[in-house]
Structures are given as structure tokens and as C-alpha cells.
Amino acid sequence: xxxxxxxxxxxxxxxxxxxxxxxxxxxxxxxxxxxxxxxxxxxxxxxxxxxxxxxxxxxxxxxxxxxxxxxxxxxxxxxxxxxxxxxxxxxxxxxxxxxxxxxxxxxxxxxxxxxxxxxxxxxxxxxxxxxxxxxxxxxxxxxxxxxxxxxxxxxxxxxxxxxxxxxxxxxxxxxxxxxxxxxxxxxxxxxxxxxxxxxxxxxxxxxxxxxxxxxxxxxxxxxxxxxxxxxxxxxxxxxxxxxxxxxxxxxxxxxxxxxxxxxxxxxxxxxxxxxxxxxxxxxxxxxxxxxxxxxxxxxxxxxxxxxxxxxxxxxxxxxxx
Length: 321
Fold this sequence. Notes:
Blueprint: H1 2-29, H2 34-39, H3 45-55, H4 61-73, H5 87-122, H6 127-141, H7 144-158, H8 174-183, H9 185-200, H10 203-210, H11 215-253, H12 258-267, H13 271-299, H14 301-320
Helix pairs in contact: 1-13, 5-6, 5-8, 5-9, 5-11, 6-9, 7-8, 7-11, 8-11, 9-11, 11-12, 11-13, 12-13, 13-14
């Protein structure tokens, strides 16, 4: 198990290098001069040349990349062109805001999706089952920003119960969380429904019914516990998708998160902030995937047996060779 975790951690290195190389290459081909963007249109050519030299923009691209990666290894993601502050210092508070929205959205999607999935499984092939599937597929089909605009129109413009933008109060988090969470309902509903139907068809469920146990007790104590294993696994996977959705909706709702920070930095050609934000998100996503894989093993012990047996087979092949 420890070897598996170490192997996954080592795999993070080429992933992050690949992400940084792609972003750095795209930055090179992006039109516009950061020095002129910083100094303004009234700056002279001498001032622009001096600023480019100060920022190291006249150096070869490969040298710039190696220098940047060396700084990242030591925790230095560069300084913002706009404020002069370290990028990491600017991103960390925004990362906390994005994390709150993401976790809240996952909780909303999971709770609603699991409830709908259980109802759909218990009422299979009825009009209730069909209605639940239609509702869940509707939210999956409609883009998140459209859902966000509709929610703003209903709760902010018409009812005046929630703010349309900003997070000055706790109410400001509700609409972004709902917009992202509703989009994930379909996957939770589908997984919960199929898992519940599979478990309800097992022999031990039929035995419990034959003994005269109440249906509610069978569902809550026997079926639901075993049916939640694939659902719990899907929750970790959806965290990454929710982070991606939050990047778009942060701009819609004016939330000062990492997504809005990156979008604003792109329009300002603030390349250190774009690179830093993208790299930090990549680190967060890869760590989440690692924790999800580890949680799979803890939730389902059969996977641990597969990993150990797979490692043993490789060792036998190596000795035979």
C-alpha cells in the first residue's frame, strides 16, 4: 500500500511539469506585451525595454521556464505584475473561498442526488422513477452558467432574498453552491439508483424480507450501507469537476476565488498570476485524485487486495526475468 502511495506521489511530478510547460508555451505565443500593459500606453520605448529587462522577458523562453520552475520548487510562484505582491500570497485567501464553494456544492449535489436515487430505486419503473430521472438529466444537460442566471433572476431579482453577487455575508455563498451542486445531481442519482437496485436484489435482502423485517429497516440498515460504497467513491471524483465549474461561476457571481483571479489575470496579461493560479489548481486537483484513490482502498478492502496482488505478480515476473 505504501509503495502504491509513493508511486502516485512521484507521478505528480511529470504531471505538474507538463501542465506548467503547456501554460508557459501558450504564454509565449499570446499577443501583447506585459511591459506595456504594466506601464501604460504613454510609456516610452526606453521605459518598456527597461521593464522587459527587469522582468526577464528578453531571456530565451527555455531559460525563463527553468528559472520559474526553480522558484516554484522553493515555493516562489513569482510576483504579480499588477500589484507586485507574491502570487502565492494573493491566491491562498482566494483558494479558501473556492474550497468553501466547492465543498458546499458537492454536499448539496450529493445529498439531493442520493435522496433522489433512493426514491427512484424504491419506486422503480413508476412515474416517480421517470420524474426523478427527468429532473436529474435536466440539470445535467443545462449549462451551469444558465442555471446560475436563472437562480439570480428568481432569488435575487424577483424575490430579493439572496444577493446576486459578492460574498459579503454567508448568503452570498448559497447561489454559487446551488448552481454547481445542481449540475452534479444526475451522476449521484444514477449511481445511487443502480447501486440500490443491485443491492436490493441480493440474497441477504431477500432473506431479511423472508424473516419479516420491516422494509424501512431493510433499506436503511442493510441495503443503503452497501449501496453507498460506489456513491462515496464518486463524491471524491466530482470534487475535481466542481472546481472546474467554480472557475466559471466565480466570474458570474463576482466571487473573489481562484477562478476569477485567473480570468482577471488573463485579461490583464498578468502572466505570473495566470501561471501560479493554474499550477496551484493543478496541484490541488492531483492531490485530490490521490486522496480519492487512497479512500477507494479504505472504503472497499477488495481494492487493497488487488493492489497488493498486482505488486506481488510484478515482483514474481521481475525475479523470473
